[in-house]
Amino acid sequence: SLGVLVVEASMASGSLITARLAAEQGREVYAIPGSIHHPAAKGCHQLIRDGAVLVETIEHILESLRGWQRLSHAAPVPVIHPLVALLHAAPHTSEALAIASGRPLSQVLATLTELELEGQVICESGRWLARCPLL
Description:
This protein is an alpha/beta fold.
């Protein structure tokens, strides 16, 4: 099974519980750091201190997935677009996705449009959500 990516989490966040349960199940835990002054980043920082994989770019996640896929002898793993992977962690605005992915906003918007047409994402109240299940 795939890992868990935590984008933002306060110290009282349910995301921390989910991440700890995933780690107990042997699943990889990824965390995106944030400003030391932002309360919603403190949970991610704690996860990183506890051994979560520090994620600064989408490539960090993709490299781990490629390594996992090489070890797997089962059926091929479906390719999940990096933006969709971020949206599985939490809904994001377009701007937040651009920041989290390190991609230009114009590129993120074009990709989101394609993913929406494919039925993989949906925009509700200005925030994007993933529609396809993670396997």
